[in-house]
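Section 4.2 – Deliverable D4.2 (structural model, holo form)

The reporting period included a commitment to supply a predicted holo structure for the target in complex with 6-phosphogluconic acid. Inputs used:
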Amino acid sequence: MTKKIELADIGLIGLGVMGINLAKNFAEKGFSVIGHDSSPSHAMNEPAIYVHSQLKDFVRNLAKPRKILFLLPAGQTVEEVIQSLVPYLEPEDLIVDAGNSHFEDTKRRSQELATKKINYLGLGVSGGEDGARNGASFMAGGKPDIFENIKPFLEAAAARDPDNNICAKRLGDAAEVGHFVKMVHNSIEYAEMQLLSEVYSQFAEIKGYNNEDISKAITSWRNELEGSFLSDVTSKILKTIDNLTDAPLIDMIEDIAEQKGTGKWGTVSGIDLGVPAPTLYEGVSSRFISQYKPDRITASKIYRPVLNKNDVLSTDTIKRAFLAAKICAFAQGFQVLKIASLKYSWDLKLNDVAQVWKAGCILRSNILNKIVEAFDRKASLTNLLLDTYLSEELKHSIPELRLVVSEAALCGLPLAAHSASLSYFDSFIKSKLPMNIIQAQRDFFGSHGYRRIDRSGTFHTSWED
Ligand code: 6PG
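Output (structure tokens):
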């Protein structure tokens, strides 16, 4: 009698930290999971999850239509894995790219695979190692019937918000929608990280607080609108002692930050779409400037910056300024999503996006409850700064942001992201901007024409006649 082989429900490729944890999460929820790794000895020590070293065996051991999810570095690796996988697949099989691929690559791949009747969708996954293991936020693209194949897995492995809503959603028909939303998530993630680094520098360099006191100040707002996963993370970091030196670990870490690219892509998409997103840009640019350390050291010797410590800024002012700046960052990110949705006809529901970000992901924040409510109140809202609740909140917190930015400027403390948010806000609320000068300059040197306020049409002036 031949033994019946149990075919697995889902297969994972890319058994790094995220892949292994997601595989364990699926297995714990009752799914049979297999993995593929060409050198499985390095893969996982998990008896419930068999790891096949041969791709052919891996595919053969999956129930049809096959569901294959991969968590791989974006770019060439994804391309190569798809190439090697496709010869073993059949129509209706589904590949889910759960890495941080660029949305345009996901679009192209889904179109190419559609010609072979292989389904393909991009899945934004946020939450790091802990999220993958204990509940992540999943942002999916893809048509409803395709998504149905993966939906039970995602819903079982997703985080739930305090109202028990599942943080896994299909956000649009296009295969690339999930990756676009995840890319914008990461741009806002970079911005909030930068804002928190600037909160730290205000406390440390203007107020002269030690790390423990900064940590306590940040912890004190954890249940308020300012509280978030990233503020908790920052607070915990500041309390951590280095076991090599017994000094606060943060003081032993080099001041040069790297990035893998998704935050940058989101900012570039904002520019491509004509959406102003200066705070998101500063999240990227501040990391870039940090990398020019030798030049910074030379410049500090030339300019000898002196920082004037004082106690003008209260803890409450720093906190409220952070909130105002962060709302502006979210406003920019959501506008990128809104305009992209219009341009690409995705019909993105922005309250769904905010809902998916409420738990599990790196961006989870108390303010997201208010953002969900804002889009529930008015789905067509063009910018969060126009929401009734958030605008009241900003009326109270913008004066604090103004104080923080001006005080830091006088002290010589760089607050790139806070300053960008303030300028964004000030430009956004001004019904008249000095763009008449820009129009006139363009016409002066390039005969580009200008529009007038008193009559329609385009005009040109011979400015020097
Ligand atoms: C998440 C994160 C994650 C991201 C890392 C590193 O949502 O879980 O966004 O996907 O890859 O945070 O990003 P950088 O290396 O670009 O800072």
